[in-house]
Write a structure and sequence with these properties.
Length: 410
């Protein structure tokens, strides 16, 4: 009789099918005197009231194992308790000590390209960070991603590719409240006219690494495959400019082996090249990074949001993503929007994107474009040559440049 075993983070879940017994092992701790203890919760999945026993066990002590087996047999008579306890202790110790198993990378097997949970926003099983100033709709975007993942919503009007099967999302909130997030989710549901939505949510106050045991337990219970962390500063704790809190955070996050979406802030500096506020490790350990920026007129109930792709470790950078939010009293409607057409977002565009945008108005010379965009003529010439090789622009006889699509009308 061997158990089925699930591991999430530092927690283990055992299931003995033949006797319908489940055991959850958490808070494993190695003491200075060599003892390794753990909290264990035993349940019977064959009973209406499943609880059997919750206790602490010394995984290396024969006396502790015998005492717990005896107590279990008195509470819930079963001939197999000695074997169950021994298997639980041995397998827990093996998992605790070995960490991740040794594997090999090979050219012999078929290799798969990187996959996405929500394309092009969130790659599968890797950490993605969306950062921006406060009020740049990051939490709404995260709830939108939770909706796309959980339903799933393959025919969504926003153009995102979603999972084929429902992928539960766990929302870990370090800034707000359950009531507010539930109200926001309800408004999105009404705005899209979607069926009822349910998403596991947890209000958090401890640093993520210190709270890993309980978070691991919740991931096991909910089956969550997408972890949303709102936001990075609260989840790290400590000095965000020091390396240690960031390294502890990403190390703890890695043990869950889940896809993650992390919301973060940026500095208030008026620099065009925005970055995640804090240590450079926030940028280094995020596998995909998006910068969020908004455009909104005072007194208006509409907000335009642009997501600019700053980093991708395994894929090309995607064009900016534009989303237009319309708020009413009890709902929020969202649709895709062309980022290039909004003046507030132009400074974040690449030089190639800026050239294509200004050429929509009329053909221009290299010098005119360089003066308009405040770019050097050498850089402008190299960029135009690259756009020409891609078939996006053409050079006219009078030394002006135009969009390829406009050539036949000029």
């Amino acid at each position: 009789m061997k158990p089925e075993i699930k591991r999430v983070g530092t927690n283990f879940e055992f299931y003995w099918k033949e006797v319908q017994i489940q055991a959850t092992v958490q808070n494993i701790h190695q003491h200075r005197d060599g003892r390794i203890t753990a909290e264990v919760l035993f349940k019977s999945l064959a009973e209406i009231h499943p609880h059997i026993l919750q206790t602490q066990i010394n995984l290396l002590s024969e006396r502790s194992k015998s005492a717990i087996a005896k107590r279990l047999n008195e509470t819930y008579p079963l001939n197999e308790w000695d074997s169950i306890i021994e298997q639980l202790c041995v397998l827990t110790l093996e998992g605790y000590r070995e960490g991740e198993p040794l594997q090999f990378i090979s050219t012999e097997e078929e290799a798969k390209p990187p996959e996405y949970l929500i394309k092009p926003l969130i790659p599968l099983n890797l950490p993605t960070t969306i950062f921006g100033l406060p009020g740049t709709m990051k939490s709404y975007i995260a709830l939108l991603c939770a909706t796309l993942s959980t339903l799933p919503w393959d025919d969504n009007p926003l153009g995102f590719t979603t999972p084929k099967e429902s992928t539960p999302a766990l929302y870990l909130d370090y800034e707000s409240s359950r009531d507010l997030m539930s109200w926001r989710l309800k408004r999105l549901q009404k705005g899209f006219d979607l069926p009822s939505l349910f998403s596991p949510y947890r209000r958090c106050s401890m640093p993520f690494a210190d709270d890993l045991q309980e978070i691991s337990k919740i991931v096991l219970e909910t089956g969550a495959k997408l972890i949303i962390i709102d936001s990075l500063g609260g989840a790290c704790g400590g000095d965000i400019y020091a390396p240690e809190p960031a390294l502890r955070f990403f190390s703890a996050l890695r043990t869950l082996n889940c896809t993650s979406l992390i919301l973060a802030h940026t500095s208030k500096e008026a620099s065009k090249d925005k970055s995640i506020i804090g240590t450079v490790y926030f940028t280094a350990y995020s596998r995909q990074i998006w910068f969020s920026k908004v455009s909104q007129e005072t007194g208006e109930n509409e907000v335009s949001v642009a997501l600019f792709h700053q980093k991708s470790n395994e894929d090309k950078l995607s064009p900016p993503i534009g989303l237009h939010f319309v708020f009413s009293e009890d709902e929020v409607a969202v649709k895709r929007q062309d980022v290039q057409g909004i003046a507030a977002f132009l400074e974040q565009l690449s030089l190639s994107q800026k050239i294509l945008e200004i050429l929509k108005e009329s053909p221009m010379t290299l010098s005119e474009m360089a003066d308009t965009l405040e770019a050097s003529r050498n850089v402008m010439g190299v960029t135009l040559a690259r756009l020409k090789s891609k078939g996006q622009v053409v050079k006219l006889s009078e030394k002006k440049w135009a969009l390829k699509a406009q050539e036949e009308f000029i």
